[in-house]
C-alpha cells in the first residue's frame, strides 16, 4: 500500500514471519524467520506474528511460540493443503490490509519465491529477495534489506520508504533461530479463507517426494564439492566415493554444472544453493565470487588445487597444493587406516 | 598432412563468429577475408568448434553461407563431442559434400547450452561411460569410410603416461596426425612422444598472442600477466627445436604477424 | 496457442568487473547476452507452438540494444518480438517491470500463456514471472521442471519444490516460469541468425501499452537501492600444505584433530 504521508508509517506495526509448510510440516527455516523477526520487532518495540497457512497444521502453532512468536495468525482450510499460490496470495493480501504489519518475511525457497512476489504486487508493496542481513534504520524506522547482487560481487542495501508493509525473503540457513522455549505461549488468531480470496486457481493433482530432483545440501555436515578441476563425470565419481567415506553430500560449482558433469541440483552458489556447513571441501574449484557467496560462511573450508593462487585456496582454512586425483585417494587411504 | 610439413605449410586457426556477437555481418566479412588469405597462401585453415565451450557458429555453415571456396588440401574442420547425433551427421554430411577432407577430432569443452554425444548415439552403449575423441574418431571412420583424414590432440601438460595411452587409442581408432597443445619452448613430454611414436605426423601448436598469461589454464600453472613474450621469435625457435614437425598457429594476428610468416620457417 | 515469452538481456556474468574506487559494477563495455534461463522459456514456447500451432512472441523491456537478444530468440524459432524501450521505464524494480510487461501482454491481446525463465542471472530475484501473473490476475506455476501434457485450453506441469515436485493443472490464461531441466534449447544456425537480423522489431512506449506513468520506472518502484558495498572478507588465516600428497594428507588429519573436527 502506498503511503501518502510518512506519518502513516506508524499505522503499520509488527513483524510477520510466514511459516514455510511442506507436506503439512512447518519447516526449520520458519524458526530462522521468526528469529530474524524477533530482532526487528525488539528494535521497534513491536510484536512477532507467525503466519501459518495450511490444512490441519493448527497443532504446530506451539512450536512457533517456542521459537519466539508472540501471536500466530492461523488460516486452516482444506484448500490450502498443497501449495496454491493463488489462494495464499489472496488471503495474505487481505490479512495485510486488515492487520497492517510493518514487515513480512518469507523463506527464499521455491515456494516463498513464487508466493511473495505475487503478494507484493497485489498489495502494492516492495519486495527484496534473498536478504542476507536485515536491520531497522533508527532515523525513520525503515527496514534496511541487504542482499548480494551481480553474482555476489556487491552487497546492495535496499529500502522501501513509501510503501508498507515491507516484504523480504531470506534463504534457509542465513538467519539464526533462537533457542526454543517450550514454556513460551501466545495468542492464536484464527482467520478464514474466503471464496473471494482467489478468482481462479490451479489444480494440484499429485505431490511427489523426489530426492533425485532436489539434492538437499543444506542439511549436510560435510560437503565435498567439485569444480572445473574435476575434469569430467569420472572425476565426480571419485568425489562421490570420497563423500561416501566421510558421510558428506556432493556439491559443485557452476563450471562443473555447465559442463554437464553433474546435475544442476548439486550447484552451490548465487544461482544454486547456499550452504553453511561444518566442513566444506572444495576440489578443483577456483572460487569465482558467484560460488563463494554460496559457501563462505561454512565453519571450516578445505581447498585442494594444483594452483595455490586461486581465490578459493586463499579463502580456505587449509589449502592443499596438489593434484586432487592424487590427494583424494590419499585421504581415502588415510581414513581406511583409522 | 605429412606433405604439408615437407612443403613448410602452416596450419592457421580461425574461429567462426560467436553466437552472441552484436556485429554478425562484420564478423562474417572478417572471417571471409582471413579465410581467403589463408587459401591464397596455400596454408591450411583450421576452423574451431565452439572453442573453450563458447558458443559460435559452425565452420561448415559459415563456409556455405559465405560461399567460400573449398580446397580439399587446405581446409580442416574441428569437431568435438558436444553435439546431438543429428547435428553431428549434418556437419559430416556437409563436409563430405563440400569436399572437405581433414577433421581434427577433440573431446572439446562443453557448456550448459551444448548437448553432449552419448555412448548410445555412437554405438558404444555399455562399452564406455562417456564419449571421447577416441569413440568419435572410430565412429566417423565407420560411418564415412575413406572420406576423412582425421587428426587428434595431444596434451603435454597432462600426466604423460596417461596421455601416451590415450594417444595410442586415438591412433588405433584411426587418427593419422596429431596437434599438440601450445608449447613455447622445448617440451620433454613432446620429445618423449616423438621418440615413442616415430614416423607419426605431428604439428606443434604455436601460441601467437603476446598475452602469454592466457595460456595459464592450458598449462596448469599461472603465467603472470606481465610476462614478456615474443611469438614470432618463439615460432622460429620451435622450428629449430622440432624440424620434423609442422606448426599449428593459434591466435595469429592477421594484421601484425601474417606477413612475417614467409621467413619464419627457414 | 498464443504464447508470450518474456526475456531479459543481462551482462555476461563472467565479464562482471568492480570499480575498485566506487565498488560499483562497471557496466560500460560489458557484453550483454540473453539471460541463460530465458533460452529454456523460448524453447518450450517454440515446442508448444510447433505442436499446437499459433504464435510465439518474445517480449523484453530494456535499452534499444536489447533488440539483439530478441533477435536471438527469433533465430531459434520465435515468430516475432516486441521491445518496451523508453527513458520512462528506466530504474524499474521488479514491481514496475512486471507491471509494464503485463500491460504489454494485455496490449498484444488474446494471449494464452506467458512463459518466463526461472530468474535473471543479474538480479536473481525470480520475482518478475509471478509479478506478471499477479498484475494480470492469472494463475501461475513456477519452477516448472516438465510439461506433462497440454491442450488448447490448459497445461499440466511438474512444479519443483524443496523436497520433490507436484503435478498441477492450470487453465489458460496462465504464467509459467521454467527451470533448466525442462528442455535442451536448440542452438541457432547461421542461416536463422541472418534471417533474424532482417526482422523489424517494434518499439513500444508507455503510451502504446496504456501504462500509468506513476507505475513505471523509478517512480513506480517501491524499492530503492540506498547503498552498495563489497562483500565482507572472510577472516581466516590459510594454512598451506605443499608437500607430497601423502605428507599433506598426514598434516591435514593432524590439523583436523587439533581443530576438533575429526
Examine the coordinates and then state which fold CATH places here, giving the name of the CATH topology of the largest domain in chain A. Rossmann fold
Strands side by side in the biggest sheet of chain C: 9-8-7-10-6-1-4-5-11
C-alpha end-to-end distance of chain C:
60 Å
Quickly count the helices of chain A: 9
Question: What is the helix content of chain C?
Answer: 25-40%
Sequence stretches where pLDDT stays below 50 over 5 or more residues of chain A = none
Low-confidence stretches of chain C are: none
* CATH architecture label of the largest domain in chain A: 3-Layer(aba) Sandwich
Strands of the widest sheet of chain A, in order across it, are 7-11-6-1-4-5-12
CATH topology of chain C, what is it called?
Rossmann fold
Radius of gyration of chain A: 22 Å
Largest sheet of chain A: 7 strands, parallel
Query: Structural class of chain C, please?
Result: alpha/beta
Please report the number of helical segments of chain C: 6
Task: Record keyword descriptors for this entry.
heterotrimer, B: about 270 residues, alpha/beta, TIM Barrel, eight-stranded parallel barrel, about 15% strand, C: about 260 residues, Rossmann fold, two-stranded antiparallel ribbon, globular
Descriptive notes:
The complex is a heterotrimer of chains A (338), B (266) and C (262). Chain A has 338 residues and is α/β, with parallel strands linked by helices. Chain A folds into two domains: 6-197, Rossmann fold (3-Layer(aba) Sandwich); 217-337, TPP-binding domain (Rossmann fold, 3-Layer(aba) Sandwich). Chain A is built from nine helices and 18 strands. The longest helix of chain A has 16 residues, at 29-44. With 266 residues, chain B is α/β, with parallel strands linked by helices. Chain B has one domain: TIM Barrel (Alpha-Beta Barrel). In chain B, helix 6 links the parallel strand 5 and strand 6 (175-182). The longest helix of chain B is centred in the first third of the chain and has 17 residues, at 24-40. With 262 residues, chain C is an alpha/beta fold. In chain C, strand 8 (154-161) and strand 9 (164-171) form a beta hairpin. Chain C starts with a strand and ends with a helix. Chains in contact: A-B, A-C, B-C. Chain A binds chain B through residues 232-234, 257-260, 306-307, 309, and chain B through 53, 109-112, 114, 116, 129-130, 220-222.
